[in-house]
Amino acid sequence: MSPKISLTRYLVEQQRIDGHIPPELRLLIEVVARACKSISQAVNKGALGDVMGTAGSENVQGEIQKKLDIIANEVLIEANEWGGHLAAMASEEMDSIYVVPNRYPQGEYLLMFDPLDGSSNIDVNVSIGTIFSVLKKSEGDRGVEESDFLQAGNQQVAAGYCVYGPQTTLVLTVGDGVAMFTLDREQGSFVLTEENVTIPDDTQEFAINMSNMRHWDEPVKRYIDECLEGKDGPRGKNFNMRWIASMVADVHRILCRGGVFLYPWDKREPEKAGKLRLMYEANPMSWLIEQAGGAATNGKQRILDLQPTRLHERVSVMLGSKNEVERVTAYHSGL
Ligand SMILES: O=P(O)(O)OC[C@H]1O[C@](O)(COP(=O)(O)O)[C@@H](O)[C@@H]1O
Ligand SMILES: [Mg+2]
Ligand SMILES: [Mg+2]
Fold first, then answer.
1. Where in the cell is it found (predicted)?
2. Does ligand 1 come within 6 angstroms of the Cβ of 69?
3. Which residue has the higher pLDDT, 229 or 56?
4. CA 282 to ligand 2 center in whole angstroms
5. Is 0.95 topped by the overall pTM?
6. What is the Cα–Cα distance from 101 to 88, expressed in whole angstroms?
7. Does the ipTM surpass 0.95?
């Protein structure tokens, strides 16, 4: 049996052999992974720990925060602020950026995260996760500002998520393909279980919240209608549907076996570009999908080329198997 390769060894090889990542970034990723391990332990406690239910407070998105949203946010802040690799952090659960206090060494990276993704599934024992994205701080000595974070997704230097499901799995890219690490609870460490993950260009499985159908725009309606017509329709093949309502779990399924995920703009809140957030949901997931051979657009443009204007900006998301994403994107330009 091939020797178990730990996350640390994998990253050291990425650093030393492939020269893909500087030592500081490697150390930052290890700290994020350790934080995810602690969050996984809190999640596993469930009703045995004081982690279920709402916290009663509201976040900048206007959502009622769950206790685990706040616990996960605090774990990530505490783990990363003293490590010396970061200049600042931003989170779905914090209105503005968190600048690393100057009693700690200042690093050159910016970390963004969705500390707990799939919050509506926390109390019903369905897979949830943490999503993260790393950018470089711009050169110069001036203090970090929110504008430093407003970089296009194609500027990410690392991106990943950790899914807390039957297994705890960390999925990562530093621009050299996608690797998956499973938490070995006995050892307490992440072990490499999949490397150079690739997703098929074609698929017969789509993921969308069908209950929003009457609110969708024509191109999305057409695309889903054709999938539902199956082999009797213009697609000539049957499609299956899945919707876990945890983006991290729906995307993980796609990285494991292909598929297409859509959370498009809809008429419920026409002034919003979509439900999901560009900086710490769509950008990291889009880079992972592209690194695995897939595609990700907002229906019109490659998500990674979008220039952000606000920290908590929302975006329409279509990602997964390349040929399906290209098809639904083509429908948006009237083809
Ligand atoms: O409940 P809906 O409308 O299907 O939305 C589900 C989507 O909302 C989310 O839960 C939003 O993320 P958060 O849980 O981090 O707020 C996604 O994970 C998921 O894809
Ligand atoms: Mg989320
Ligand atoms: Mg969240």
1. Cytoplasm
2. no
3. 229
4. 9
5. yes
6. 9
7. yes
